[in-house]
């Protein structure tokens, strides 16, 4: 019947539809039976169907020597076959149900005969009477009073009984589930029946004593949530309170005896409860706002904002750890147009995290995680519509471990749901242990703490800062040294190109270390332009450092292998500039363009490349390739210079410059390569604390290595510095005059030798 009312008129339309029963609607007791003809010459079989307006008749086959009867109960009718003579062989009995105008429904029941020598389980009358059962078969018994279904017990192949499996469901819970199912199917008045069922459900939650009861309860809640959405029903305070009380009781139910077996039958049970809770919590009538509700496992706060949003939305919960949420006004202002009120519902559920499947999306990988036991669901309604986009900032209190900001995505893992980190960033506050999450959408949030990664370590952080400071100071000293001795040490082309490459390495590493040192002070996340800029500049300058080392190595290889094909200094310098700056800019720009739109450019809570997508490989890949090429060039260079015959080798002065290049590269290439190789290991794998310390020390002291092995180990640099130091002495100094006088003949002698 369909009723339509408008302006005092009422129309009623009637349509009769005959819906046949399905095989799953018919309960067989038992659906298989093993019987010993010597101890039990007779047995009973029954097929029961729920009460229906259709008239059904039943017939059993084979029925020789048997008698069929009808037994009616308030909720069902059963057709019972009393078999008086045991069949000679295994037999398949069939209950055939007929109703006028419908196709017959045939339900089979198998009967297995126990013969002499068969392994069997003995009779057992401890709580329920179990007859002798053949090994490998399942014995069944009816549920006790006020419960629907069957109790099953398997007879093992060794003739021993296995534990009892109950499929019994409380009759009243089942009736509520059936009412909700009919509402979902379109029968009944949702505005009247949904509040009634919610009120009764709060009382019936106390009757849950089996996994079947729990599944019936959860199924009822899911049906009601779908009815509320389809019929656009708004709940009053009492109805919402009844639902929240039910949810509180469900979250407190025993995991081992109830939730685990229920989830074995329906893996998405916890995810379905979360979805229903989100749906029903945001369905409160506008006139009942604001509304606050608090129980041990459930806390709810709602607020109704006017068309002109006055300020940011803030809410806090007295949970453990404390939980706060904040939605900026800029995310809410576009919703309040044309006089539309905006309602915000914040729901915190405790213990739900242990009931959700341990499913993790791609960004989270295969790690093991723990949760703080809190799930926060924020919903925004405007104009009768739910909005799931907007920026939300959450503080999850003291976590004590490495956190990940996540939300529950109901669509992952074929509908089971899973944790996803898409659109969320984490920032650990430096003033305390609070974990702050930034997310660009509204749904059920929580945080995951990795159980394997190395936690925050103040010693590592201090070591990194001190080392970077020392590295920056060493690079500045290196620039000062070049300022003093530049004209003296670049007397030939090889020396000029070598020191020009090293100077650019110093400049790039100085810029990279400065950005790296200042990046933790910036607010993380792709919405922070400063954080994006710091990550991009670090990526570019660190890559440029390696490409300039590659340029130095390739210049060395060309000088040794192509002795009679020399390039001009300007041409070599332009090629080195292109390799040192254009190539790293290409890699850094490609990473930004490819991974920023996917939300995979920045790592969680840091202004550096993410190791979960692929952005980090645009840095590590070129670095490791350059280290490999440099190693090959160094091997060739050493073999070339150590040959017995050097007639085709470089001149002595040029040879000395090339040896200086080789010495520097022999030290710097392994140091830089080992540093970032360890960095890749610590970012992508779960490792002990030792590699973290080694990486921090090497990474933060690269400037010191360049000063020592790239600059000060050069003989000409040392000589030039010594001369500058001597010339800066007072003219009255005896040592200075002696040095000056003895240096003139040396230079003159050298000049004469050169002229010869």
CATH class of the largest domain reads Mainly Alpha
Gross geometry = elongated
Whole-number mean pLDDT: 78
Derived from helix and strand composition plus strand pairing, the structural class reads: alpha+beta
**Radius of gyration, rounded?**
40 Å
Question: Number of domains in the coordinates?
Answer: 4
The amount of beta strand, in percent, is 15-25%
Number of helices: 17
Helix content: 40-55%
CATH homologous group name of the largest domain: Rhodopsin 7-helix transmembrane proteins
CATH topology of the largest domain: Rhopdopsin 7-helix transmembrane proteins
List low-confidence stretches. Answer: 450-456, 644-650, 730-756
Number of strands: 31
For the sheet with most strands, the description reads: 9 strands, antiparallel
The span between the termini is 120 Å
In short:
By secondary structure, the chain is of the alpha+beta class.
Task: Describe the protein's topology.
Blueprint: E1 2-6, E2 9-13, E3 27-29, E4 32-35, E5 43-50, E6 57-61, E7 66-72, E8 76-83, E9 91-98, E10 105-113, E11 120-121, E12 133-134, E13 138-142, E14 147-148, E15 150-155, E16 161-166, E17 169-170, H1 171-185, H2 190-204, H3 211-231, H4 237-251, H5 255-265, H6 269-281, E18 291-294, E19 298-305, E20 313-317, E21 323-327, H7 329-332, E22 342-350, E23 369-370, E24 374-382, E25 385-387, E26 389-398, E27 403-409, E28 418-420, E29 424-428, E30 434-441, E31 444-450, H8 458-489, H9 493-518, H10 529-561, H11 569-595, H12 617-641, H13 652-684, H14 689-700, H15 702-712, H16 715-727, H17 734-755
Parallel strand pairs: 4-10
Antiparallel strand pairs: 1-2, 3-5, 5-8, 6-9, 7-8, 9-10, 11-12, 13-15, 14-17, 15-16, 18-19, 19-22, 20-21, 21-26, 22-24, 23-31, 24-25, 24-31, 26-30, 27-28, 27-31, 29-30
Helix pairs in contact: 1-2, 1-3, 2-3, 2-4, 3-5, 3-6, 4-6, 8-9, 8-14, 8-15, 8-16, 9-10, 9-11, 9-13, 9-15, 10-11, 10-12, 10-13, 12-13, 13-14, 13-15
